[in-house]
Amino acid sequence: MADPARVKPETSFNDTSTPAERSKKSEGSGDGPVSGSTSSKLTAVQTNTKEDKTSAEHTAAGEEEEDGSSSLNPPPAKKLKVEQDKKKEKRQKVDEDEIQKMQVLVSSFSEEQLNRYEMYRRAAFPKAAIKRLIQSITGSSVSQNVVIAMSGISKVFAGEIVEEALDVCEKWGDTPPLQPKHMREAVRRLKSREQGPNSKHKRILFH
Description:
The chain is an all-alpha fold and 207 residues long. Helices cover 70% and strands 0% of the residues. It has helices spanning 19-28, 36-72, 76-107, 111-122, 127-138, 144-171, 180-192.
């Protein structure tokens, strides 16, 4: 009797499938190795994922650097706004100091000086007359702001003339009230120091 281990298994002739169908069955089984095209696709997907992560990290780093640089070097518009705010604060501080000094000065006035100061503050040139005078000289209409400015300048100029006239009156040994001769001498002195308007036209000779 023959040894069963040495007996070759008989080939089954019942399998009538074609070689192509056999290859499909072998590909369909999960135990078989992964094909070359599938493995290359997986590698490409992994590579793309790594590249996306790297680009995202670089983008985030660039944004952080831009934020840091913007905090160190602000844009020109923001810098200009900061400078304007500083100038405004400085101007307000100067105005407050001047107001405080003026309050101290007024509080030290005598009764006569206080009355004179009150009259000076209340005095003003009529704006209608100032506007009419400007229009007669320029020949055109002017805005209300120009009239207000000219009225203030005229008041300051009149105050300078009065102060100079008081000095002239004291120097000449006269007593107030002021007289026309004092006013004329005050105007002459201001013109000589080029602190007043000059009504005379200077002729320029060309050589």
